[in-house]
Amino acid sequence: xxxxxxILVAESVTKDFMGLRAIDNLDFAVKRSSIHGLIGPNGxxxxxxxxxxxxxxxxxxxxxxxxxxxxTNLKSHVRAGMGMSRTFQEGGPTRTWLNSHR
Length: 102
Hints:
Elements: E1 6-17, E2 20-31, H1 46-54, E3 61-66, E4 69-70, H2 76-82, H3 97-100
Antiparallel strand pairs: 1-2, 1-3, 3-4
């Protein structure tokens, strides 16, 4: 696989939390100018994967590439400067349209 054809590549990514394997040997690639979705049940590791890719969590094993450059050990703010980041949902029982648009 030529990494230049992809904007994002995860190779054999694994994440362990104190003996619990949350992600096991995941390979994932997103072609340039394409749209992908990541779906799965609660607890499947979707958020963990996004946190690994964006640098919010360290990868236990494996490599992450963004725009053909290895970013596995780069901090999240460095990755954000390269154009890769994530957002967080605001939620809870007091969330209303009005509160969100003040």
